[in-house]
């Protein structure tokens, strides 16, 4: 198998001659007057064209289950993608200048990040691992975007010779498999499958590649097992298949992935990545958290704070914020009440309200939180250290 080093030198062989525009290595350009003049560029890879490119490119899924959720996530981070019409594959995000958005199939996003035609992408972790084949140029910048959760899992029929097989070990030890009659596994994930089954010590395995509706193959008799994505498990169940103990190859969800080479060398990539990451973290951190405001009678902020902190569900993110509430009495501003502000996880909301009331809280207001910007963006420090950059590298706005 090709190493990532061999792969990247293999990928860099063909500089493109057409350099009028910065464009992906295979595209069709249509004139705006509708008379389409077609320029089909070769499927080349890290071309000098991509090295010269001045704008940063983000790849987003063009279709499939990831597409809408990706756009929603970005919208919720105030990074709405502006696409003039749904069949146009290039777009922008007005808040991020010097960034182009390219809609591509998830696999092509990962391939194009490796070839240098894209710098960043949002795809499933499964695709990063399968199409990336361990390429160290791919860096997962945010590993948990909160949608597209699924697992890559081995499944076998519930019937026939597999009826009493419930674990990977039992599957491996079945007497049926030999050099001439290996265990046949149908999958679109042959790189990950091959690695997994090798590591698990399977000797006689053959991968058969196919994409989509794999769950039908065991009943058709063309395969013994499948290796595919599972989320609810309905498709397996409806096709009389079962997962087995020890058979999960990978847990996946949507991730933000970047090219190490672009982060290191393409001007603007690091800054844009920092801004996207900050917005993603702030939004995702705020999901499921409420702001709770209540009034409480007291002699001083400290005394109220002690009462609040005596309750287990009222400490908030960094402790409560307590401010005096002024009212006018005999022409003077006096303080009888204090306002308490705390952030509370959705699941603890009712318990928190009960505890607030128990210590004298009244007029409890609850509102949704949109963003929580912390002082630090934890994944940013991790990224800097992966890139070998000083940890105090800051990305202040220009
Ligand atoms: N059943 C599922 N539940 C949740 N997420 C899933 C599920 N199946 C796939 N995904 C995630 O969504 C991603 C995209 O899947 P989708 O089916 O839209 O595209 P695809 O199968 O890669 O493309 P295509 O079928 O067009 O070749 C997958 O890579 C995976 O991360
Ligand atoms: O566990 P479940 O919730 O039933 O989901 C699992 C199914 O989802 C995916 O297929 P998809 O719907 O993407 O169709 P495809 O095979 O055509 O890509 C996957 O390949 C499984 O077939
Ligand atoms: Mg699919």
Overview of the molecule:
The protein has 398 residues and is of the alpha/beta class. The chain folds into three domains: 188 residues, 3-Layer(aba) Sandwich (D-Maltodextrin-Binding Protein, domain 2); 100 residues, D-Maltodextrin-Binding Protein, domain 2, CATH 3.40.190; 80 residues, 2-Layer Sandwich (Alpha-Beta Plaits). The chain contains 14 helices and 15 strands. The strands form three sheets. It has a six-stranded mixed sheet with strand order 2-3-1-4-11-5, with helices on both faces. A five-stranded mixed sheet has the order 8-7-9-6-10. Strands 13-14-12-15 form a four-stranded antiparallel sheet, covered by helices on one side. Helix 4 packs across helix 5. The N terminus is likely disordered. The site of 1-O-pyrophosphono-5-O-phosphono-alpha-D-ribofuranose has 11 residues, from strand 9 and helix 9. It holds the Pfam family HisG_C. One of its GO terms (molecular function) is magnesium ion binding. Catalyzes the condensation of ATP and 5-phosphoribose 1-diphosphate to form N'-(5'-phosphoribosyl)-ATP (PR-ATP).
The geometry reads as: globular
| Rg, nearest Å | 27 Å
Q: Could you give the order of strands across the largest sheet?
A: 2-3-1-4-11-5
Query: Which CATH architecture of the largest domain is right?
Result: 3-Layer(aba) Sandwich
Poorly predicted runs are: 1-45
At the first level of CATH, what is the class of the largest domain? Alpha Beta
Write the layout of secondary structure elements.
Elements: H1 4-11, H2 48-52, E1 56-61, H3 65-76, E2 90-91, E3 99-104, H4 106-115, E4 120-124, H5 125-132, E5 138-142, E6 150-157, H6 168-172, E7 183-187, H7 190-199, E8 205-209, H8 217-220, E9 225-230, H9 234-238, E10 241-252, E11 254-259, H10 260-265, H11 269-286, E12 289-297, H12 301-309, E13 321-329, E14 332-345, H13 349-358, E15 361-368, H14 378-387
Helix pairs in contact: 4-5
Bound molecules: adenosine-5'-triphosphate, 1-O-pyrophosphono-5-O-phosphono-alpha-D-ribofuranose (PRP) and magnesium ion.
Adenosine-5'-triphosphate is lined by residues 64-66, 106, 124, 126-127, 148-150, 211-212, 229, 231, 252.
């Amino acid at each position: 198998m090709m190493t990532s080093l061999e792969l990247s030198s293999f990928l860099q062989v063909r500089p493109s001659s057409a350099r009028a525009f910065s464009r992906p290595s295979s595209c069709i350009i249509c004139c705006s007057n509708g008379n389409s003049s077609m320029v089909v560029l070769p499927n080349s890879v890290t071309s000098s064209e991509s090295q010269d490119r001045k704008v940063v490119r983000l790849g987003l899924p063009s279709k499939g289950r990831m597409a809408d959720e990706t756009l929603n996530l970005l919208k919720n981070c105030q990074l709405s993608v502006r696409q003039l019409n749904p069949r146009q594959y290039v777009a922008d995000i007005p808040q991020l200048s010097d960034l182009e958005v390219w809609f591509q199939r998830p696999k092509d996003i990962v391939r194009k990040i490796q070839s240098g035609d894209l710098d960043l992408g949002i795809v499933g972790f499964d695709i990063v691992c399968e199409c990336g084949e361990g390429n160290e140029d791919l860096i997962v910048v945010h590993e948990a975007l909160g949608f597209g959760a699924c697992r890559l899992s081995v499944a076998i029929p519930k019937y026939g010779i597999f009826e009493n097989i419930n674990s990977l070990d039992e599957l491996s030890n079945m007497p049926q498999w030999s050099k001439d009659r290996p265990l046949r596994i149908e999958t679109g994930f042959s790189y990950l499958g091959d690695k997994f089954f090798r590591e698990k010590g399977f000797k006689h395995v053959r991968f058969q590649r196919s994409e989509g509706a794999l769950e039908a193959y065991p009943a058709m008799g063309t395969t013994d097992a499948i290796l595919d994505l599972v989320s609810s498990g309905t498709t397996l169940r409806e096709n009389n298949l079962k997962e087995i103990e020890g058979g999960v190859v990978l847990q996946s969800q949507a991730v933000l992935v970047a090219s190490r080479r672009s982060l290191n060398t393409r001007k603007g990539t690091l800054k844009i990545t920092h801004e996207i990451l900050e917005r993603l973290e702030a939004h995702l951190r705020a999901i499921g958290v409420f702001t709770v405001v209540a009034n409480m009678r007291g002699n001083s902020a400290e005394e109220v704070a002690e009462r609040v902190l005596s309750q287990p569900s009222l400490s908030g993110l960094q402790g409560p914020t307590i401010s005096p509430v002024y009212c006018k009495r005999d022409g003077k501003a006096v303080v009888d009440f204090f306002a308490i502000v705390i952030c509370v996880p959705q699941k603890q909301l009712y318990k928190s309200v009960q505890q607030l009331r128990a210590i004298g809280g009244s007029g409890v207001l609850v509102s949704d939180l949109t963003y929580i910007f912390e002082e630090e963006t934890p994944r940013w420090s991790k990224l800097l250290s992966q890139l070998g950059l000083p940890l105090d590298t800051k990305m202040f706005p220009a």
